[in-house]
Amino acid sequence: MSNEHTTITESLANVATRANELCNTVDEQLSVINSTLTAEKQKMAAKTAELTALTNAAVAESKAKIDTLVDNGFRSEIPFFRVTKNQELKINGVLTPGTKGTPNGFGNRAGQYDCEIVAYTQHGVEPDQKNPEIQKMWSEVHHTIPKHNQPDFAIIRLTAKDVADYPTHINNAYSIYQGALPQSGIFTFGAWVKVEQGEVHMGYPQSDDSTRLPNDNTWHERMYTGSVLSGGAYYNFGPHFYLSKGASCLIALPGVVLGKVPEGRWGYFERPVFEREQ
């Protein structure tokens, strides 16, 4: 009986040992499977990231090609026409430096802003003989100073007066502008501008300062677009220049143009005679 009991005990021990070995084998295989799954997941993640990067790069490249095609191809072939008057900035019908007043065709809160012609482009004059500010404007905006340009246009100095009734908030401190301008499509508002002092915005001042012009004694091409909000019933004003009290800036070629003008293309635009003006 004792031998029989020993045999059963040994058998159970062997079964337990084999069961443990089997469990260990299963654990080892599960570990191998988990390691394999982890490695495959990592490979899949890396492949997915690679494919995502390739897709994003392809999309970005395609977008860049489309933008280039639109800007340098399609859009470069579009004729842009101006809807505002007097882009040359004549005051009292002339371009004479020192002339003061509101540029013809513009509105101006004259009690709060002064306008004065500083210089004009002097078509036909040798580049190094032109007014220094004209030379600076051309070289900083277009990197060249032309001897000839048509038509001649002026640089004006726009100064915000230090007066008691000057607007306390920059959002209300708009100066010269034109309008109302009926708008049934995209408008581009543009100008060449140099800030002399103070805070100057082109377009309604935004909280992120995206409309603020750099106060760096440098001429800049500045454009922004306005889109249609309510079809044929919509109208707009502009281009708007907002100045803090005591601020001043130099402005050339301000205007509003039909369509979206590409960067680097702002300049003088012809203006047709519209039906309601005939």
What can you see in these coordinates?
- With 278 residues, the protein is of the alpha+beta class.
- It folds into two domains: 75 residues; 165 residues, Jelly Rolls (Sandwich), CATH 2.60.120.
- The strands form three sheets. The chain has a five-stranded antiparallel beta sheet with strand order 1-2-9-4-6, covered by helices on one side.
- The mean pLDDT is 88.
In short:
With 278 residues, the chain is an alpha+beta fold. The protein contains 2 helices and 9 strands; from the N terminus they run αβαββββββββ.
Question: What are the SSEs and their pairings?
Answer:
Blueprint: H1 2-74, E1 113-120, H2 132-142, E2 154-160, E3 178-182, E4 187-197, E5 200-202, E6 220-226, E7 235-238, E8 241-243, E9 248-258
